[in-house]
Amino acid sequence: MSIRRRRFAAALKPFRKPLIIAIANQKGGVGKTTTAINLATAMAAIGRRVLLVDFDPQGNASTGLGIDRRDRKITSYEVLLGAAKIEDALTKTRVPGLSVIPSTIDLSGAELELIDLERRTERLKEALAEQFVIDGFEYVLIDCPPSLSLLTLNALVAARSVLVPLQCEFFALEGLSLLLRTVERVKANFNPELDIHGIVLTMFDSRNNLSAQVADDVREYMGDKVFKTVIPRNVRISEAPSHGKPALLYDYRCAGSEAYMRLASELLLRSEAPMRPRDGSGLSETAGRKTA
């Protein structure tokens, strides 16, 4: 379908502005990219059209969705610097309804290049603004780098809300406090709509008393902002990226995959109230399906 026809088709139906969610935590190793990959996959399996923006120079979200580095011709780097449009960088995944804007190590140099540019904190926001009238994405998830950098700031300015993966370990609350302060500063100075969408507890080990204690402390501190769903430590989740698949395609029956399906349902309930499954698509139908 031509761009003109897609614009016309979009004009015939009510326009729903996509919900843009930044998945962020300045602390590394908390399951941020794992959450981005599997949450996006689960939301697509429920029937939503989802775009995952890989905004981490490591490019792990792209790898985890099976996008070979040699196939990443146009990436979030070119989009951020205005050298390409979102539609040029869109890459379909093996999951129906899920597309990704891939990333490469080139993105690590973008911060230096942005310093002298006007509106350097709004580059991603402006790049995302036009595309969705045409393509109808309902959710955009941005996988941020594990740092409070200019890249992360671009993501927070573009987003409507922040989803925070939080590892159930001792330093969790300290890192959370720092991130919450950053969100408040961004809200005050750049993006007054920004809010915490929710906090998801990751790498939960039911055999470890410390995991339960951290979970209780976070729930006491943040209340209803903490998702009820907890992501457990799971071997199959760790194995999946080496096969270029989300865990939900690698083994959709494992405990980790089931947890991400529950998390997706809970997130959609918060966002849509009530959630309405669209096409009945499920992971059992997409598991093992190759990219067209």
Description:
There is one protein chain. By secondary structure, the protein is α/β, with parallel strands linked by helices. The chain has helices at residues 3-12, 32-46, 60-64, 76-80, 86-89, 110-114, 123-129, 132-135, 150-158, 172-189, 209-222, 235-239, 247-250, 255-272, 283-286; strands at 19-23, 50-54, 91-92, 98-101, 139-143, 161-167, 195-204, 226-232.
How far apart are the termini? 18 Å
Shape: globular
Counted up, domains total 1
Biggest β-sheet: strands ordered side by side in the sheet? 3-4-2-5-1-6-7-8
Tell me briefly what this model is.
The chain has helices spanning 3-12, 32-46, 60-64, 76-80, 86-89, 110-114, 123-129, 132-135, 150-158, 172-189, 209-222, 235-239, 247-250, 255-272, 283-286, and strands at 19-23, 50-54, 91-92, 98-101, 139-143, 161-167, 195-204, 226-232.
List the helices and strands and how they pair.
Blueprint: H1 3-12, E1 19-23, H2 32-46, E2 50-54, H3 60-64, H4 76-80, H5 86-89, E3 91-92, E4 98-101, H6 110-114, H7 123-129, H8 132-135, E5 139-143, H9 150-158, E6 161-167, H10 172-189, E7 195-204, H11 209-222, E8 226-232, H12 235-239, H13 247-250, H14 255-272, H15 283-286
Helix pairs in contact: 2-14, 7-9
Descriptors:
292 residues, alpha/beta, 8-stranded mixed sheet, 15 helices, 43% helix
